[in-house]
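Record type: ASSEMBLY
Status: queued
Input:
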Amino acid sequence: MPILEVKNLKKKFDKNQILKGISFDLEEGQAISIIGSSGSGKTTLLRCLNFLETADEGTITVRGEQLFDGKNPVTDPDLLRKMRLHFGLVFQQFNLFPQYTALENVTLAPLINAEANEKAGIIENAKDLLDQMGLSDRMDNYPHQLSGGQQQRVAIARALALKPDILCFDEPTSALDPELTGEVLRVIRNLAEKNTTMIIVTHEMAFARDVADKAIFMDDGAILEMGPADELINNPKEERTRQFLSGVIK
Amino acid sequence: MFLTVTISLLEGFIGTIKLFLLTLVFSLPLGLFICFGSMSKTAVLKYPIRFIIWIVRGTPLMLQLLIIYYGPGIFLGVNLWGGGSNGRFMAALVAFVFNYACYFSEIYRGGIQSIPVGQYEAGKVLGMTKSQIFVKIILLQVIKRIVPPISNEVITLVKDTSLARVIAVYEIIWNGQAFIKSSGIIWPLFYTGAFYLLFSGLLTLLFGYIEKKLGYFK
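Status: finished
Output:
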């Protein structure tokens, strides 16, 4: 059974149909990369999966449990919060909390509902995660004291701290200098090697090919092509995919 | 004479500070409620509150003092404030609290709306509730941003308290002016300026300290 099944997801903003029926599934421990030009609906798809947007139609099922059905969307804030915890999201703009140190950014949410005897473990786990991100000497720094690449790695640790079933990346390196892109990609690559279940929206084609098991090419709100990542990116079947890929530097 | 004047002005200044502090104690939190009301999605809450803010910010505080003090008696025939200096002080306090709460509410609104939506979304995807997001993530960032405009408003309030004398509330200007009649001297009135300067100087230092304390993040 796939860990995530998305069926016929549709989303409209005003008169613009942004998602035109997206269906795919994802096996546990696999990574899927989503490519496509700006405005093709990639980000909206991730936002619907994280329930930052409510899809108009379609279903989202995690581990066989249907979390979302467009016919009868959940509006109860408590339920919505629980649904969100199945997913983690790393934003393009990092969105770290500026008044907290790197470590506090990671521990903030897990500590909120923790029992007193769990706190030490949560802090240990956060330190461990930051260590894996190569930030062991940066834990007590505030976001403005960190480079973009370091900030994004803190954001990844923050998302991982809640142990989501599926970790989503929304163009995690698009706001970074090319120099800093590598360090973030390396971290995501490590996660893939540890079989973290991930959905990665990216414009880094070589990365999308190497890190992911499966790739999706989205165009104008629909999935135009889906397949093994190396096949899709090296030998796309669709003319539109080829056209897109030849336009971006591999 | 100088000592007598100084003591009298100090007594008046206690009235000034009392009005100043009580106004802040009530208007700072009230402003937050007005702010939430003015940002509410419920039209029956939002528009009346924005209308009131418009009235309060659009008319002179001196006029508001007169209307709040005399209005109930003239229009409703009720002696709301009672007689005596306590009644006048209460009326002045109500006018100040209301007026400043409206100004503060707009400062809060500007502060809250200046926080990027990504901060809320980051809290949401981490499974935080609306109130946790506000208290743990948004609030301190808002406070940092509104300290400069709030400090401006607070320093204005120090001087605005002198308007209370139009309904004969005892404060420092009142006491300074009294020397014109009683002793035929005007310098005590000018001398009151030193008290205002000293006090707003202290406030400037205080707000400078708060800004510095919040300077650890950007």
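Annotation: The mean pLDDT of chain B is 93.
Annotation: The two ends of chain B are 53 Å apart (CA to CA).
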